[in-house]
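Let us practice reading a record.
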Amino acid sequence: MKKFNFLTMLFSLMLISVISINSQSLIHEYDPNGIPPIIGPSGQGGGITDADGDWSSFASLPGGSSTSGAANAYLNGIVYHFGGSAGPSAEYLSWDEGTNTWTSLGNMPGGGRYYFQAAVAGGKIYLIGGSQAWPTPTGMVEIFDGATWSTGTPLPIAVHDAGYAVYQDRYIYVVGGMVGSWTDYRNHVQIYDTQTDTWATGTDFPVMVGCMAGGCVGNIICLTGAYDGTQSNAIYEGEINPGDPTMITWTTSSATIRDAAYRPGGGAAGDQYANNMVFFVGGQSPYSNQACGYDPVTDTYTQYPDKPTPLGNVGNFVPGTNMMYVMGGYDGGYNLACEGMEYTMVPVPVELASFTAEVVEGTVELSWITATETNNQGFEVQRSNGGEFEAIAFVDGHGTTTETHAYSYTDKNLVEGAYSYRLKQVDFDGTFEYSNVVEVDVSVPAVFALDQNYPNPFNPSTKINFRLAVDSKVSLKVFDVLGQEVATLLNGDFVAGSHTVNFNASALNSGVYMYRIEATGNDGTNFTSVKKMILTK
C-alpha cells in the first residue's frame, strides 16, 4: 500500500493501540468482594467476529514469569515482555502473534527492574526508570532495537511508577512518579529526545502523583489513574507547544474514567492512525476490568467491552497487527493472562502537500511541506543533471505526526545547466517512496561578487559566499586588523557560478577580521573585494 500520497488525507475508523504505563501493586488493602464482575460482549469466547472491541485469550505467559510492574512493547511484528515482579526480574521474552508462542530471550544487560515503562520511538524500545530494589528508583535508560542493547543518558530525576507519552515518534515524556515509597510523589515532567540522547524539563504537572497511564495524540498528552494516597478517575490533558516541546498547558477534562483506579494500562492510538483516541484498561483497587477511550479533541469518553480478566498493575497496553494486547498484571497473585481486543487500523500516510524548486543567484532552493507523517525517518534529496539521479543530502523527518511541517534544502556550487530534483521518503523500517520530479534551469552569475559572511558576528564558524562570472583562479584569505594573514581558505581553480566556503575560527581570538577575495578569470578579468567580519567568543 503506498504511503507517500500527494494532497490526499485518509480519515479513519477506530483504532486501539498503545504506548503505556507499568507500575507496582500494593499487596494490602484489596477487597476480593469488590472485584467487578466479568461482563463480556455477546458471543465472547467463540472467537472474534468484528472490530468493536471484542476480547480474546491467547497463550499465557510462561509459568514463573514476573508480570506485575513489567514492561511490554511491540516492535517489528514481535511483542516483548521485560522484567517485572516477583523479583525484580531481569528476564525478557518475546511472543509471536502468528504462532502464539512465547520464547525466553535471556536477561536485560542492566539487571532486574520493575515498575517501569517501555516506550517505542523511532523504531526502538526505550526502557526508562523504574526500580531495581523497592522503593529506590533508578534513572536507567536501556535501548533495544529487537537485536542489540545499548544505554542512553539516565533520567535527571530517577523515578518509578511514572506516566509516559510519546510525541512525534521522538520525544518521550516522563510525568510524575515516585522517588521513594508511597509518600514521595512528584510532579516533574522530564522529556527525553531520542534523536539527541538528551533530557529537558517540561512544564510541571499540576499535582504531585504517581501510577498514571496515558499517551499522546497530536500534540495533546492524556493521563489518568493518578494516585497520591487517594484514587482518582480524573483525566488530565497537556497541550504541547509544537514550537517548544517543553512548554505544556495542563488542564483537567470534564470527562472521567468509569472506575477510579490507579495503575491502569493505557496509551494512545498514535499519530500514525487517523483518530484522536487515548485508551485505558484495568487498574486497582479493587481490580478493574474497564476498557475505555477518550477523545481530547471532542472531550468525549467511550466505554468499550470489559476486559475478561480484571487486573491492576497492568504491564502494558500494546498494539499488534490487529489486536491491542494486555499481558499479565496483578489480582492478588501474579496473573499470566494474555488477552487481546480487536481493532480496525487505518494508517495516515506521509502526505506531501507541496514540493517546489527556485533558483536564487545561481543556487537552487528546494522547499516541501508535509501535512501528515507516519514512521518517517526522513527525505533523501536526489539530483539529476541529465543522467541518473544521485543522492546529495538527507533531511531528517518528524517520525509520526499529524502536524504540518516545512522542510528546505539549498543546493549550491552549481554550474550552468538544467537540473531535476526528487525526494526519496524513507521509513524507519527501510521502505521508501519517491516524490514527483521538479526541474529548474541554473544560469551563470552575470558579475563577480563577494557576499557578507553569515552569521556575523559569529562563534566560531561562519559561511562566506562568492560568485564568479567565468571560470577563475581564486584566492580567499583572512587577515587581522594589523594586516597579518591568519588563514588561507581557498587557493585554486573554480568554475563559474555560486560557491560557499565554511570558516572555523576556533583557533583565533575574538576581534575584527578582514577577508579578501582575488579572482582572475579565464577571460582575463580581475576581481578583488574585501569585507569585515567579527568573531565573538
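A brief commentary: Residues 449-535 form a domain with the Immunoglobulin-like fold (CATH 2.60.40.2550).
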